[in-house]
Amino acid sequence: QSTWVKTAERQIWEQEFRKYMYEAQKENILLQLEATYRGRLADIHSATKKRVDYMNDKLNATNTLQQEHMVAWIVDSVTATITPALEQEALTQCIVDLKTLAARKPSIQ
Q1: Residue 106 carries which DSSP code?
Q2: Which of 19, 41, 86, 106 would suit a FRET pair with 2, their CA atoms being 20 to 30 Å apart?
Q3: What is the pLDDT of residues 10-58, one digit of tens each?
Q4: Can you spell out the DSSP letters for 37-73?
Q5: What's CA 106's distance to the chain center, in Å?
Q6: What is the mean pLDDT of residues 73-99?
Q7: What pLDDT score was predicted for residue 62?
Q8: CB burial of residue 33 (10 Å; 0-12, 13-18, 19+)
Q9: Given a cut of 80, is residue 105 above it in pLDDT?
C-alpha cells in the first residue's frame, strides 16, 4: 500500500510539475514573440528613418540647385542689361556724389 501512496503522490507531483512546465513554456514563447516583434519594430524604424533622411537630403539638394540656378540667371540678366554707356553714366554720377560729399564741412560732435 505504501507503493500505491508513493505512486499517487508522484503522479500528483508530476501533474503540478506539468502545469508549471506548461506555464513556463508558454511564457518563454511569449517572450520570444515579444523579442521578434521589437526587433521588427526596430528594423521598420531604421528603414523609415533612412527613407525620410534620403527624402530630406534630396529636397535640400534640389532647393540648393534651384537657388544657385536662379541666382546665376538673375546675375546674368542684370549683367546683360548693363550697357557701357549706362555703366559710364553711373560711374560719373558716383564721382559727382563723392565730390559733393567732400565739399561739405565735416561736423564735429
Answers
A1: P
A2: 19
A3: 888 889 899 999 999 999 999 999 999 999 999 999 999 999 999 999 9
A4: HHHHHHHHHHHHHHHHHHHHHHHHHHHHHHHHHHHHH
A5: 57
A6: 91
A7: 98
A8: exposed
A9: no
What are the grid coordinates assigned to 42, written together? 526596430
Judged by average pLDDT, the poorest of 32-41, 54-63, 86-95 is 86-95
- The number of residues making up the chain comes to 109
* Residue located via cell numbers 564721382: 95
CA contacts within 13 A on the Cβ side of 36: 6
Q: Give pTM, 2 decimals.
A: 0.55
Other Cβ atoms less than 10 A from the Cβ of 14: the count is: 11
Question: Phi and psi of 105, rounded to 5°?
Answer: -80, 135
Kindly report the backbone phi and psi dihedral angles of residue 84, in degrees, each rounded to the nearest multiple of 5, phi listed first. Answer: -60, -35
Which set of grid coordinates corresponds to residue 55? 527624402
Give residue 109's identity as a one-letter amino acid code: Q
Amino acid letter, residue 72: A
φ and ψ at residue 106, rounded to 5 degrees: -70, 135
